[in-house]
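Weekly structure sync - notes
Attendees: PM, LS, DV (DV joined late)
Agenda: review two folding runs queued last week.

Item 1: First target. Sequence and structure tokens pasted below for the record.
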Amino acid sequence: MVNLTKFSESLAELMQEQNLSVKDLAKATGIKGANIYYYLRAERLPSVESVIALADYFKCSTDFLLGLTDENTCETFKSCPPFSDRLDFLIKYFKVSAYKIYTHTYVSKARFFDWKRGKYMPSLDNIIKLSEFFDCSVDVILGRG
């Protein structure tokens, strides 16, 4: 699960380091200013797309931004491939079955196969569940790193 307080603190710290206003960040990332205010007040869970846009803008890992790690490695990450392609890669690379993934992450079978077919993108909480299951970073799950 995303710790909204840690996410809020990380975002506020990154914005302060670059002397950015909410308006500036919204313009630079395409995220609505109102949503950024919600994130800063720890009132709303960001979408996967928003987390990626923010991490790309600040050149940090999604794990740092989400408060999953204290280490901020500034680097440029790859663009994310379609999640269905990434899920196929993870299944092959880690040599696990779809059944094992959806039963151990408590994701419904139908939802899992919707991701696999490219019908839906997982929520941020489900991306984190997958990173915990595979014991890797959120960026690896997303195909950024």
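Item 2: Second target, run right after the first with the same settings.
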Amino acid sequence: MIDRKIESAHILIVSDIEQALNSLLPFYSKHTIRVIKNEEKDEFLLAQANAAIKEAYISSNEKKYIFLCGKSFRLEAQNSLLKVLEEPPSNIVFIIITNSKSSILPTIFSRIPHKFFKTYIKKDEIGLDILNMDLKAVYAFLKDNQRISKSEAKAIVESTFFKVNSQKMKLTQSELDVFSKSIKLIELNSRPINVLTTLFLTLLNRKRV
């Protein structure tokens, strides 16, 4: 639960988007907020991005808070938002609410402060040393996690992304995209062990280049 008003641009990583909105919106005057999300599914698409941009350029004499909500954000939607997020019009505050850090492009994530409101995330839960891991270590890790749940698999993907950042690994855009694709595949009920295998082999192959 979010127990305070967010006054400036932020990315909020939450367990439940609707619950986060319900706890957050009472702190704002109704006429100062706009909530933009895909009503048909949980993915934020280009149509929602265009609606957000249009809303941002409707002038306001007081602060207007635009909430962008989605379990995942399509790359083309994020790319179209880059300029307005970096240089928002006067009195416009963007607040992104999502379930996964890895669903947001690094170019956006690095420019907007973020807060975690997910109680189950443990940033240090990945025992692998990503920089120095080898095939044997990856095999052992995957074997230990071959029967994990969807939520546990998503937590591993997110924690791995955190560790990549903390170890200051430089990844290409396609390698970064593997993280957001992994979350999407897990949500689409792909076998977690298959998704994690692809993710770690991608990181391992990159290390060997």
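Discussion on item 2: The helical segments are 17-24, 46-56, 75-86, 106-109, 135-144, 150-166, 173-187, 192-208.
Action: LS to circulate a short write-up before next sync.
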